[in-house]
Amino acid sequence: MTNVLFIASTKPQMGVFADSVRKFQALGAATYLGGIFHLPSVAELGTTPLTETHQLPRNLNTRSAALRRKARKAPGGMKVWLQARGDSWLRRQARHADVLVALDPGAVYTVWRLAQYYRVEEAHFGIAPALKAVERVKQRGTSGTRAALPPLDIVKANARRAMDGLPAAVMRHATARPVMRSAVGAKLWRTAVQVPGVPPRVRVATSRYVAEGMQWAGRTSGASLTLAAAASKIPDLTTRAGLLDEAVMNELAKGISPRDMDKAVAARLAETDAEFARGDQVKASAALDRALTLAFHRVLHIDQLSSPLAEDAAGFTAPLYRSPSMRALARPQGRRTPYAEPPKDRPLRLLVTTSANDNFLHHILARYGKHQDVELRYLDLAAQRSLKRIAWAGRRVLEDRLSGGTSTYQEEVERLMRPYLDWADTVFLDWSVGPAAMLTTIDPGTTRIIVRLHSYEAFTRWPHMTDFSRIDDLVYVAPHVRDLVESLVPQLREDTAPRTHLVDNAMDLTGFGRPKPADARFNLGLVGVSQVAKDPLWAVEVLRRVREHDERYRLLLVGGDMNPKTSMATRVYRRAMEAQLKPLVQEGVVLRLGPTDDVPSALTDIGVILSSSVREGCHVGLMEGAASAAVPVSRDWPFYAGKPNSARTLYPQGWVVGSVEEAAQRILETTATEEAWRDAGKLAADHALSTWDWPVVSRAFDELFLGDR
Questions:
Q1: Are 349 and 423 spatial neighbours (Cβ–Cβ below 8 Å)?
Q2: Tell me: the pLDDT tens digits for 86-95?
Q3: How does DSSP classify residue 340?
Q4: Is the Cβ–Cβ distance between 425 and 403 less than 8 Å?
Q5: Which residues are registered as beta bridge partners of 354?
Q6: pLDDT one-digit tens code per residue, 145-164
Q7: Inter-axis angle of helices 183-192 and 152-163, to 10 degrees?
Q8: Which of 641, 683, 644 is nearest to 662 (CA)?
């Protein structure tokens, strides 16, 4: 059937028009009328109705003031077009029309624009030529299934017109979901935002409308590509950086690792360097803050099963440190005087501090709170509003460091922290994050500063904002963490770097040695499933492999679930995990025990302890499981596998496996009999207690704090 679309800006002579409609229908045409005039008058057509009629907008009363002003100055035909162009019915019918017909001069411009946009060859003014066009269409056998997109040159022309002053509502119609859902349409609009000769302000606004349409259509990466394409044509550094920032944040919000992240970070660094060269530390620090926030975004490094840092950590940060601003940030300030040696005539004044996270401090606080040679104070920076405010003021830290002198922030840190520094002989700061950056903005005086870095910090911006020349000792929990951090942070490879120590976490493992029932031999356990990096699906795959040999094996999951609000990447992983776990839980093959404050009791029913993670510092859950005499089976953490230090150098030979198949083989071999299982568990417990138990590790802390005293 041939589709004919009539456009009328004024009411036609109804009798003549009714006769014409019958002629079109006699040729087998479906007839549609879009009218600007008051459409109920079409009822006068009587017994020969059109296939469909539609009331087009009759005025611009509800539209923006800018559009109304433009319409007042426009010719009559242009005004009709401005009224009608956003109408979804009109566009839908034009998309499928074989013949477009203007019934009056006021409709000609609208028909011409629709014919250009939808590639309709038969577009005419008047009934007679339209009838002949229908006959030609019938002879050619054309159907009304024309593609909904115009040639690129038409898109460019329309983009220029649209970008030249039309309001947001019109642009949104032009870039709406149906067009953007098409791969061709999305590509054409991405090209359109790059057309030359468009003012930057207009190009930016248009690219955002196009990106918005693509987001509506589910094309997140397309939206980001559009913003990045527009940014490539913007000369202003700040504007270009802003668009690229939006582009990558669109993808990060969907849990996607952005393809243009390098460009976005480079643009923010260029903006930073320009402001820094002008002496505007406020703007420079704001831009640098964004650059570092993007470069070390958690979706990129923490909420995925891999990270660019796993492949080439030094190569990842090298472009950052080519920036003059970053080099200024990394410039060591040093101490004015060396720290004072521990006193011989009184106890050591030890200040232990952190911000909210004291998970690894309990045994340290208990030991040195009772130690005859130590006077202990504990400071939780998060417990006092004034201290919490300065501890995590990243942008103010950057501004202070870029200024190269004094600042109001530095004065505030001095006022709030100096009393603690003046009291303490030694400060032990747990976690090398915001508080470490804050504390190193001021000279520590004669106080010794010790900072412990676990693993998480390596994937954040904070080590790059810390002046390590004002830290005397840096404590790592494992060699592979040290290797990673030192490859990331140039300061730590210089002469001004602090002394480094490898000290295991403080754990009381003696209480884990409880009797296990015989049937625990078939229970695999995973302690801690709240992060994507724990990769519990690897453990599920191991379970499937061992159950192929013996269906008595089960998997016990201990710990809280992943928080889907953390990021979309976390939500995606959890959704996949839940889909696999649901039938296994229903069958009783997987038991979700949830969070607990009594891990030793939970471990009594676990015969094999797993570490399924893609990365770890020192997997406490595995160490505790080994201390409970569960057989340890650790994945060769992919993030560090094959490097000089990894899970294989942290744990005894035989504990670490390179694949799911190796894991299943180790489990089946060590649990083949109850005797073999208990023997393997005893060996693991002996190693754990002799290596990581607090009575052993506490000697390293005594040496760190007290030396040979």
A1: yes
A2: 888 999 999 8
A3: P
A4: no
A5: 380
A6: 444 344 444 444 554 544 44
A7: 50
A8: 641
